């Protein structure tokens, strides 16, 4: 006995986990069943998609081969009721060894699962993979080709989970409720059926760990799908954030033209714009930029903000803080991009919000209130000007701080204490930005520069904290936040428009 053990050790034998050995044996049996066919490969040429489209037309004769080819090339071309395509897909094919004819195929589509596929909000709108177009030529069925393709899809999705640093990934599919062989196969492969029949289909799901992928296997585009990032990338987040900023800026401009311009500038908008931006000439504007930067640096040094906990712990304890940083998480593509890669999109992400806030709080509220009071009391202007400036400064800083407590939800623990913390954090900033406006002859340049520099600095700090934290834990926090913010209605098959197509069923 000891001689046998010593011989195994000396020959370099390494024991492997039982699960890995079983998976390898299963794949070996599947490969041995694939008679007269090569191993699974990834479609890359136009001819590969055309051949797969012709095979799909044989399995699903309700549509032409050209239509199937179009969807195989671009899954988003199908108005699918169960999912929204979220990235480039992978098409796996099996060809005959001699004739090189495509005899089987399966498509793996990165997606966002729709509520029509699952009533559970824990899964709807989650980034996952959808398996469709699992087709096997009628003459090649019952030889393990379908199982081999599904096994490849699992490993392809697993590779994406590993590259994304995700703890697991869900595979979804939809099968017609009368397709008994396919239902039996997926049940044997470990897929669980979602409760109920949806549009004549049974929706099934399986969770795959990130350790199934093998380095030597062919990889498709889906294997590079980031399961934790947001759709649209940094510039997509910039575009989505513009709507709120433009609305707020529009409100500020309306107030300036409707209230301040008639009362202070005698209906002369050009004079008002010149007064708020460039009064004093170019040298004054350049000086305002320097003053704004200096004020931002000094105020942040005075604050000396300290982080005593990791960002994940802070977010879990304070969901309002996480809500404020949700768009930033999307901007960083789920912490895949470091701060140095985001300087341009970050600038255009922050600038509209800063401009709209300064236009409203300092341009309209502070400057308008101060000028209106002063203009109505010319006979005691020096005294009234000081009092009006102090009142307008405190008032504008107060509403600036109160606006930021909207992040705190009523159902949060210690909601009142968190609101007070937000006021303590933002009220001093409002005072600094307001003082800059008053000290620079009511020009907006200095407060805009100080506000932008402050936000830019702390945003870079937050991005670096994202990058240092555990990415999967951060993604779980924001997923939980989105579920709390969402209040979906129960979905049913009758609630969807009849024009939406269901997922292609599987054929064996």
From TrEMBL:
<keyword id="KW-0472">Membrane</keyword>
<feature type="compositionally biased region" description="Low complexity">
    <location>
        <begin position="491"/>
        <end position="508"/>
    </location>
</feature>
<feature type="transmembrane region" description="Helical">
    <location>
        <begin position="431"/>
        <end position="458"/>
    </location>
</feature>
<keyword id="KW-1133">Transmembrane helix</keyword>
<protein>
    <recommendedName>
        <fullName>N-acetyltransferase domain-containing protein</fullName>
    </recommendedName>
</protein>
<feature type="transmembrane region" description="Helical">
    <location>
        <begin position="246"/>
        <end position="265"/>
    </location>
</feature>
<dbReference type="InterPro" id="IPR000182">
    <property type="entry name" value="GNAT_dom"/>
</dbReference>
<feature type="domain" description="N-acetyltransferase">
    <location>
        <begin position="65"/>
        <end position="209"/>
    </location>
</feature>
<feature type="transmembrane region" description="Helical">
    <location>
        <begin position="383"/>
        <end position="403"/>
    </location>
</feature>
<keyword id="KW-0812">Transmembrane</keyword>
<dbReference type="GO" id="GO:0004175">
    <property type="term" value="F:endopeptidase activity"/>
</dbReference>
<dbReference type="GO" id="GO:0016747">
    <property type="term" value="F:acyltransferase activity, transferring groups other than amino-acyl groups"/>
</dbReference>
<feature type="region of interest" description="Disordered">
    <location>
        <begin position="485"/>
        <end position="508"/>
    </location>
</feature>
<dbReference type="InterPro" id="IPR016181">
    <property type="entry name" value="Acyl_CoA_acyltransferase"/>
</dbReference>
<dbReference type="GO" id="GO:0080120">
    <property type="term" value="P:CAAX-box protein maturation"/>
</dbReference>
<dbReference type="Pfam" id="PF02517">
    <property type="entry name" value="Rce1-like"/>
</dbReference>
<dbReference type="InterPro" id="IPR003675">
    <property type="entry name" value="Rce1/LyrA-like_dom"/>
</dbReference>
<dbReference type="Pfam" id="PF13508">
    <property type="entry name" value="Acetyltransf_7"/>
</dbReference>
